């Protein structure tokens, strides 16, 4: 059945415009050249884009090539015509220097496609870390009806009877290698055990986080985010998603109807409950700005910090993606939060119902994996937002603070939740790798390790490097984590309680540019402060000298895009977007249709 559109479809400006018969003919003949008919193109059926993020270069999302077949069947059955096209590939673990560099590139390119071609709506095939925000950001800017389809996580990894989780196993294997417990071959074998099937990271890394948040924002069909990639349910929901996007055209249900400020606040609350990635605040800030929604980094502490950790997934907990799905996925988590009044229930979602209607009464199927609200894994598990003379804003993920870390740094009876120590400063990940095990660097159990030159400008796209392992000699003494502070990011699969995403970065002459090895630094989680303990005069003097020397230096760009992005990218606390791009909003409505 073809649903009856409520307003003229934008694709008619290409395919059915009698006032410009020359162009209409040209548009039609070329889309006929692979077998579509004139009758179809002029039938008034909505043209649905499938923004394809999967390819051989992006294995996390590659299964979307298969799912697209079921999407097409759903689209066709509901009365639409599918046109599939590639999105610039972004494989988190494949792209040098960083996948972060390509999020804005894929965003910008997808905006051009959605705006400039005869598309009435789009299915966003999301998955690997940056593909989700890139696609959602573009849909927000253009604001045609859009629905997201997650590719789903890989099956659980196993090694010697224990779950091995994506990324998280790497941090463990690094420590085992440093301690001499495994060799290089053992390292690769252990890490590869975590990737047993198609799909994205099976931990609560940035991918599972962002896919869960895409559902919490209302942009995916309820219950669909957590379905593992190879499950038959994943095929089924692809079909349902295809059908639904055609109905959304008839209803004119657009991203701006779904992604309201209340939807973002829901996502922040859900992020705390799932133990979500430290990349989420960057991507949600970017998405909100392109959507034209006010969202401040402080909203994460105000609305998210007190929320408990309910989902027992690695790195904060024990389980993996399959367990998360079987336990009930996002709706089971939202239902627990709704019972406490923590969710704005009236927010509209892509299935045409509110999040309250979708999630009310959804039961937890396995309480080991998703805890009831009154039996959480951790209380107050959201992010803390810190500021001081080192940066205006940085965040700390409290859900991954280990007992060892808590006892050593946060349990001083006269000064709880605060600690001080001497800084050791690394300029970029290469400097860290060269010097970390050099005893003359003199890293001790008291040291606070700093990573700078790793932000959106300094290391184009911002490197995931702030979670630094201590030197091997300290690990052998049983010290598994030192406080890490930096202007880079870290993988969502890391269990390190780093202070990261510091903005402005050293390369933008933030306070981190001025710190020197040996300076004492004080971190106070109660007050939310991070300060180097030197006078304002001394800091100002250092700044004068550094500016006179040409500022904080960082490596030259190696590609045209690195240079372009570095010249316009903002800082992470405001989403690291292409500054200026946010003024283009809801642009599909500016088409000037006849
Ligand atoms: Fe693609 Fe983790 S590397 S989701
Ligand atoms: Mg990552």
Provide the fold topology.
Layout: H1 12-15, H2 21-32, H3 38-41, E1 47-52, H4 64-77, E2 81-86, H5 100-116, E3 121-126, H6 131-142, E4 146-150, E5 157-159, E6 162-164, H7 168-178, H8 184-192, H9 206-216, H10 232-251, H11 255-258, H12 261-274, H13 280-291, H14 298-304, H15 321-326, H16 329-339, H17 355-359, E7 383-386, E8 393-397, H18 403-409, E9 418-427, H19 428-435, E10 448-452, H20 472-476, E11 484-486, E12 499-503, E13 520-524, E14 529-532, H21 536-548, H22 560-568
Parallel strand pairs: 1-2, 1-3, 3-4, 9-10, 10-11
Antiparallel strand pairs: 5-6, 7-8, 8-12, 9-13, 13-14
The site of magnesium ion has 6 residues, from loops.
Notes on the structure:
It is a single chain. Helices cover 36% and strands 12% of the residues. By secondary structure, it is α/β, with parallel strands linked by helices. The protein has a domain at 384-549: 3-Layer(bba) Sandwich (Glucose Oxidase, domain 1). The strands form 4 sheets. A 5-stranded mixed beta sheet has the order 11-10-9-13-14. It has a 4-stranded parallel beta sheet with strand order 2-1-3-4, sandwiched between helices. Strand 1 (47-52), helix 4 (64-77) and strand 2 (81-86) form a beta-alpha-beta unit. It starts with 11 loop residues before the first helix and ends in a 26-residue tail after the last helix. The model has no long low-confidence stretch (mean pLDDT 95). Bound molecules: FE2/S2 (inorganic) cluster (FES) and magnesium ion (MG). Magnesium ion binds next to loops. Residues 45-358 form the Dihydroxy-acid/6-phosphogluconate dehydratase N-terminal domain. This is Dihydroxy-acid dehydratase. Its EC number is 4.2.1.9. Belongs to the IlvD/Edd family.
């Amino acid at each position: 059945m073809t649903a009856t559109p409520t307003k003229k479809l934008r694709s008619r400006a290409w395919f059915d415009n009698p006032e410009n018969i020359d162009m209409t003919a040209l548009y039609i003949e070329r889309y006929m050249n692979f077998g579509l008919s004139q009758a179809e193109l002029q039938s008034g059926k909505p043209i649905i884009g499938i923004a394809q993020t999967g390819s051989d270069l992006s294995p996390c999302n590659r299964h979307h090539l298969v799912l697209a077949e079921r999407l097409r069947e759903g689209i066709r059955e509901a009365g639409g015509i599918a046109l599939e096209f590639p999105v610039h590939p972004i494989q988190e673990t494949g792209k040098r220097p960083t996948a972060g560099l390509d999020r804005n590139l894929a965003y910008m390119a997808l905006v051009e496609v959605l705006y400039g071609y005869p598309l009435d709506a789009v299915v966003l095939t999301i998955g690997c870390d940056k593909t989700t925000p890139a696609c959602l950001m573009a849909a927000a800017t253009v604001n045609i009806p859009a629905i997201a389809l997650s590719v789903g996580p890989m099956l659980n990894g196993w090694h010697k009877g224990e779950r091995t989780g994506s990324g998280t196993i790497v941090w463990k294997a690094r420590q085992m290698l440093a301690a001499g417990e495994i060799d290089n071959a053992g390292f690769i074998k252990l890490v590869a055990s975590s990737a047993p099937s198609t799909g994205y990271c099976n931990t609560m890394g940035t991918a599972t986080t962002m896919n869960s948040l895409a559902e919490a924002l209302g942009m995916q069909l309820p219950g669909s985010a957590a379905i593992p990639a190879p499950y038959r349910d994943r095929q089924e929901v692809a079909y349902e998603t295809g059908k639904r996007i055609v109905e959304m055209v008839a209803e004119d249900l657009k991203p701006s109807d779904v992604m309201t400020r209340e939807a973002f606040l829901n996502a922040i609350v859900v992020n705390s409950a799932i133990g979500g990635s430290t990349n989420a605040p960057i991507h949600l800030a970017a998405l909100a700005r392109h959507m034209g929604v006010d969202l401040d980094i402080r909203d994460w502490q105000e609305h998210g910090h007190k929320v408990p950790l309910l989902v027992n997934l690695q790195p904060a907990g024990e389980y993996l993606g399959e367990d998360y799905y079987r336990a009930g996925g996002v709706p089971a988590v939202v239902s627990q939060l709704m019972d406490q009044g923590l969710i704005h229930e009236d927010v509209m979602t892509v299935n045409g119902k509110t999040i309250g209607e979708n999630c009310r009464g959804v039961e937890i199927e396995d309480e080991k994996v998703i805890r009831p609200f009154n039996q959480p894994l951790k209380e107050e598990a959201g992010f803390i937002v810190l500021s001081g003379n080192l940066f205006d804003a940085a965040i700390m993920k409290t859900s991954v603070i280990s007992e060892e870390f808590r006892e050593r740094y946060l349990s001083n009876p006269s000064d709880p939740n605060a600690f001080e120590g001497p800084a050791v400063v690394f300029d970029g990940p290469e400097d860290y790798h060269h010097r970390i095990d050099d005893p003359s660097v003199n890293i001790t159990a008291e040291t606070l390790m700093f990573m700078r030159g790793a932000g959106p400008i300094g290391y184009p796209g911002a490197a995931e490097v702030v979670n630094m392992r201590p030197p091997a000699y300290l690990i052998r003494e049983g010290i598994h984590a030192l406080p890490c502070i930096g202007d880079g990011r870290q993988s969502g699969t890391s269990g390190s309680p780093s202070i990261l995403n510091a903005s402005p970065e050293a390369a933008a002459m933030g306070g981190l540019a001025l710190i020197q090895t040996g300076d004492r630094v004080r971190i106070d989680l109660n007050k939310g402060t991070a300060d180097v303990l030197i006078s304002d005069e001394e800091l100002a003097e250092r700044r004068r000298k550094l500016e006179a020397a040409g500022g904080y230096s960082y490596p030259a760009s190696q590609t045209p895009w690195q240079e372009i992005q570095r010249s316009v990218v903002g800082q992470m606390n405001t989403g690291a977007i292409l500054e200026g791009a946010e003024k283009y909003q809801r642009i599909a409505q500016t088409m000037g249709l006849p």
